[in-house]
Design a protein that fits this description.
The protein has 183 residues and is mostly helical. It contains seven helices and no strands.
């Protein structure tokens, strides 16, 4: 993997783990690194999970426009399908949670920048960066969802995290397989 691809993956992981306000960064960063020593707060979970899910859909829609690689196309279609369902379940769980929290309206500047970069790339450069971003994003999401499923504050969102975690773990394993492609 080229240095730029690793840098892109690192930026996505950081962006996904740092979407919360500064007061919430420590627990989110810990879960994103899969240390799971402390569960993220409910606010941090909501503020991180929603944009991360949107990123998976948007970046995969871009992939469908930019690649003809059958493995990447199949993966992107699955991400759009699964993350659309995850988004719907998240909104329902958030409504039932009675927290009064709303998901952030946007993606945040780091994710916006990554989306813009993916839109500008073509060919193998795009494919490698897309795979790296998906891998980093799903790794961070596994940590986030595992942390909240194990120690989250809100029962509805905790149940959502626990139910969703196996799907995100499966996606992460799929990403690791995509990284082995000879592009």
């Amino acid at each position: 993997m080229k240095t730029t691809t690793r840098n892109a993956a690192a930026r996505i992981a950081v962006a996904l783990s740092l979407l919360a306000t500064p007061a919430l960064l420590a627990p989110v960063a810990a879960t994103a690194a899969e240390s799971a020593t402390a569960a993220p707060t409910t606010q941090a979970f909501v503020d991180t999970a929603a944009p991360a899910n949107k990123f998976e859909i948007l970046s995969s829609q871009i992939a469908l426009q930019k690649t003809t690689n059958p493995e990447i196309v199949a993966f992107a279609k699955k991400m759009i399908h699964d993350h659309t369902e995850i988004g719907t379940a998240f909104v329902a769980a958030l409504a039932k949670s009675k927290t009064g929290l709303k998901p952030p309206a946007g993606l945040g500047p780091d994710i916006d920048a990554t989306i813009a970069r993916l839109k500008s790339e073509t060919g193998v450069t795009f494919e490698k960066d897309y795979i790296a971003a998906q891998t980093a994003g799903h790794k961070a999401a596994v940590g986030l969802f595992k942390g909240y499923a194990e120690g989250g504050e809100n029962p509805e969102l905790k149940a959502f995290a626990a139910k969703t975690l196996p799907t995100i773990e499966m996606h992460y394993h799929m990403c690791m397989q995509l990284e082995k492609l000879k592009l």
